[in-house]
Design brief:
heterodimer, A: mainly alpha, 17 helices, globular, B: alpha/beta, Rossmann fold, 6-stranded mixed beta sheet, 31% helix
Chain lengths: 420, 515
């Protein structure tokens, strides 16, 4: 097969993925033109990725939720609850409530108190993260999942209820106050950057892995007698992705002008790195584990999956727990990134998350959707927001545009599928 | 109760002329000509798949004009329903009461009867008129139902009456009843017969589709027999006997369509004793009423029976995925087992190739590979990974053994032909290396060549010692492939025949409950 024929075949096979990537590129070019190039400045690109990290973290889980044929309306506020729990622990608990409690209880053992207090900020941060994840996963993963999977209440209803509960919890925790959460160490999760050198090393590792992966896949195809794709095409793709990774690291590693003085402004951002790790794990889980396969099978044909001996309740429960855990992760990043917990935390994020998954090609009928697509979807949603903001478009119009883009994208997808 | 043997008139209301209907790869109707006279009750019978439903779907506009060949004249005019014009048939006075009830359970009788055509005053439903009109219809045809009761409170028999009232609310001239008695009790059938007589006295023409031969003699004036898409005969009911009718229904010779097997059934592997089960949907409704049989190693055990006889319910119950077992026992290799899920069945070495290939067997949008490996993933995966090399190897082996024709295993199943799709379903269940393979109508809707391959495969498996339970709607297939045949009727086993003594006539007699 010649190169152009294979290129067009590959394009047709993955038309949905390519279409959305092209849409993203087109959007960036449009904004670049409209903002006379300001949109593509390193500072803005860097912000873009950081801003998408919270929704994108949740979107990776939402894909599996929707693939199963369910929905989760509680994720935004679930993240909000976790962010407030973390902020409360950070600001009040470790440094005020717990010390005074210990001092009262162990007043006659000053040696013990000296050993424990003051709690080291790193210890505090680690404990906050663990407790935050626990609380979030317990309520929005395990409890909601149990009700959905084993008690059979529709996910729509359970998570709608969860949304209200989350609002109540947030009010209860914060008492309507804003709680600071930008203490040392904890702040690094959402605001930190990697050392520049370390960034370059990471890049090198990623590029090596990309190439290893490519050759591995070719070797396996050969072993099983499948037709090998054109080597130049494979190489070109790998080089292309390597260049993308390089471009991103370069952008992040450049010293950017920031308003704040004395803040490290070069280096890969920690939340983006976290997102990258989660994304790779989720892509692996969705493609290369029984858990992932079963989710797609159930969404594709529930009856066939059931008759194939798949325990549907267990699977639904598992996906709910995963979603709850990811929402909790997003909540931790959110708290650290904005620097406080507040009653508005996570408000409306569920809509962005669902929109990202749908934009990324996840079918609301279930059975279809990719994590990669959802990441691009999240990037598109965030790009829209930042672009419109940069053009000083009023918020009212921003919402209008976002809504229309979502419907338009799904309309195009529907038309595309019909004509294929 | 005997109907007036000579129909009201000799005036033809409905005339099918040389109707042929093809589906991809299958000819459902071939050159069917038949006439229905005004005011008669015209029975239509034939085996499953003989073409009865297809013929009625053409008549009611489900398959529009142009998708079939031939002509249909109704009241002297040719019927030409365009696409999506099912309502035109209703307006013309042709109404169907389908086998599956189509009522909205939460709505009242009146609302159901006038669904979609409620009498309105400036957009507001005139409830008084609706209920009054419903009552009029019910009175006119002696239907004893309260129009204000929600349908879900009614029994199946009364629901059927509501269906009929709904059909008649459009001033139907022809009423088609598609197996109306399959869910009715004897008393309800008596009522239905009375209703049909009333309709007849009002000049309504009836086409009555049924499997149950004795009903034909009880109700109809004329009978048309369809077989393999052809109208074999149309005769006055009084000129027929059950024996004659059965011969018309099955009357074909066994062709050399089945590969020769060298099966040697061994010891008993599966023993089902007095199995009773309830419907999972309707509490208390018994779907299996004491079924007993056994299957031996390396045997092909055929299950025959008409639609609704409980065949599929039986095997689904054995597989742990249908009814609630209320009594009876099941033994595998002498050990009593209780199977409550597909998973448990698989652990006991039972596999089920389900009846509905697309709805239950496959995930059409996924690849052949993923479909074959789905129930077997545990063979080549840990908790955190799937050994995709092993998976691919195993699936390739299956695809090769079964000769699945595809350029590659990553092709989606919806790109395959019916026969190859069925092979994928079989492959997925063979990979789990079953001791007992249940195949529910394994050759339905696939072409002759693929059927032959599947028969060959069944022989090979049986020779290797797998016990196969095969449900089939085709009598020839049952006779051609089985070592023994169990015939089911009304949720019971009405007879188990050794292949040496089984004939189509005998099976049909057991299946229709006339033995």
């Amino acid at each position: 097969m010649n190169l152009s024929a294979e290129l067009s075949k590959r394009f047709r096979q993955n038309i949905q993925t390519y279409a959305i990537v092209l849409a993203l590129v087109a959007l960036w070019i449009l904004f670049a033109v409209l903002t006379e190039g300001r949109y593509l400045r390193p500072q803005n690109i860097s912000n873009l990725f950081r801003q998408m990290s919270v929704t994108a973290l949740m979107a990776t889980g939402m894909v599996l939720v929707i693939v199963l044929g369910n929905i989760d309306l509680s994720v935004g506020k679930a993240a909000g609850v976790v962010s407030c729990v973390a902020a409360f622990l950070q600001d009040d608990f470790w440094h005020k409530i717990l010390p005074s409690f210990l001092q009262e209880t162990f007043a006659n053992q000053p040696a013990l108190l000296d050993a424990i207090l003051p709690i080291h900020p790193l210890t505090a941060a680690i404990l906050s993260v663990i407790l935050g994840l626990l609380v979030g996963t317990l309520i929005f993963g395990i409890l909601q999942g149990y009700i959905i999977a084993y008690l059979g209440v529709p996910a729509f209803i359970v998570t709608l209820g969860g949304l209200f509960v989350a609002r109540g919890l947030i009010l209860w925790i914060t008492q309507g106050q804003t709680i600071a959460s930008d203490q040392a160490y904890f702040r690094e999760i959402g605001q930190g950057r990697l050392d520049v050198t370390f960034g370059w090393i990471l890049l090198a590792v990623v590029i090596v892995l990309l190439f290893v992966n490519m050759f591995n896949s070719r070797r396996r195809k050969q072993k099983h007698g499948f037709a090998l794709p054109n080597i130049y095409l494979d190489l070109a793709m790998t080089v292309f992705f390597s260049l993308l990774a390089f471009a991103y690291v370069l952008v992040e590693n450049i010293d950017k002008d920031t308003v704040k003085e004395g803040i490290q402004n070069a280096g890969i951002q920690v939340p983006v790195l976290l997102l990258g790790i989660v994304a790779i794990i989720m892509i692996y889980v969705s493609n290369n584990t029984r858990f992932g396969r079963y989710a797609y099978a159930i969404g594709g044909n529930r009856e066939a999956a059931r008759l194939s001996g798949i325990n549907i309740q267990k699977q639904v429960f598992g996906v709910c727990v995963l979603m709850g855990f990811l929402a909790s992760c997003a909540g931790i990043v959110l708290a650290s990134y904005v620097g406080y917990g507040t009653i508005a935390a996570g408000e409306g994020y569920e809509l962005d998350v669902i929109a990202a998954a749908i934009l990324g090609g996840t079918s609301t009928l279930g059975g279809e959707g990719t994590i990669f697509g959802a990441l691009i979807g999240a990037l598109i949603m965030t790009s829209l927001v930042t672009g419109l903001q940069m053009m000083n478009v009023e918020s009212s119009y921003q919402y209008l545009v976002r809504g229309m883009v979502l419907v338009l994208a799904v309309y195009l997808d529907v038309t595309l599928k019909k004509n294929r | 109760m005997t109907p007036d043997a000579s129909p009201a008139t000799n005036d033809v209301i409905l005339d099918f002329q040389n109707v042929t209907k093809q589906f991809p790869g299958v000819t459902a109707l071939s050159d069917v000509s038949m006439q229905v006279r005004r005011g008669e009750i015209h029975g239509l019978c034939g085996e499953n798949g003989a073409g009865k439903s297809t013929l009625m779907k053409i008549l009611s506009g489900v398959y529009p004009y142009g998708t079939y060949e031939g002509n249909i004249y109704y009241e002297g005019q040719e019927l030409k329903f365009e696409i999506g014009a099912i309502h035109r048939a209703i307006e013309a006075g042709i109404a169907i009461v389908y086998q599956e009830l189509t009522l909205v359970p939460s709505m009242t009788v009146g609302e159901n009867v006038y669904l979609g055509k409620e009498p309105v005053n400036v957009g507001v439903v005139n409830w008084n008129k609706l209920y009054a009109d419903t009552q009029d219809i019910l009175n006119k045809y002696n239907l004893d139902v309260d129009p204000q009761i929600p349908v879900r409170h009614l029994g199946v028999g009364k629901m059927q009456m509501v269906e009929i009232a709904k059909a008649l609310s459009e001033n139907a001239k022809i009423l088609i009843l598609d197996e109306p008695t399959s869910a009715l009790t004897e008393a309800e059938i008596d009522t239905l017969v009375e209703i049909l007589q009333t309709l007849k006295s009002h000049g309504v023409t009836c086409i009555y589709i049924t499997h149950k031969l004795e009903e034909l003699f009880r109700i109809t004036d004329t009978v048309t027999v369809l077989r393999d898409g052809k109208a074999v005969t149309t005769q006055l009911t009084k000129d027929l006997t059950i024996e004659k009718l059965v011969r018309h229904m099955v009357g074909r010779e066994m062709k050399e369509r089945f590969p020769e097997g060298h099966r040697q059934p061994g010891e008993v592997v599966l023993e089902v004793d007095n199995l009773h089960a309830e419907s999972p949907r309707v509490a208390g409704q018994e779907i299996l009423s004491g079924v007993s049989f056994n299957v031996r190693r390396g045997e092909i055990f055929g299950i025959a029976g008409l639609m609704g006889s409980g065949r599929t319910e039986l095997v689904s119950t054995i597989f742990g995925e249908y009814g609630k077992v209320t009594a009876g026992t099941m033994k595998i290799e002498g050990r009593e087992v209780e199977i409550k899920s597909a998973r448990a069945a698989m652990k006991e070495g039972i596999s089920l190739v389900p009846e509905d290939r697309k709805g239950q067997g496959l995930i059409l949008k996924q690849s052949i590979l993923k479909n074959i490996s789905l129930p077997n993933l545990e063979q080549f995966s840990g908790l955190l990974n799937i050994d995709s090399d092993a998976e691919l190897k195993a699936c390739q082996q299956q695809a090769k053994n079964l000769d699945i024709k595809t350029p590659n295993l990553l092709a989606a199943c919806d790109t395959l032909s019916g026969g190859n799709q069925q092979k994928v379903v079989i492959a997925k269940w063979l990979l789990s290396e079953p001791k007992i393979l249940i195949m529910d109508d394994p050759t339905r809707g696939i072409d002759v060549g693929a059927k032959y391959e599947i028969y060959k495969l069944m022989n090979e498996l049986a020779e290797e010692g797998v016990s196969i339970i095969m449900i089939s709607s085709e009598l020839e297939e049952v006779l051609g492939m089985s070592d023994r045949v169990m015939v089911m009727c009304g949720g019971r086993s009405s007879g188990i025949l050794d292949i040496s003594e089984a004939t189509q006539e005998k099976i049909m007699a057991f299946a229709t409950g006339t033995a």
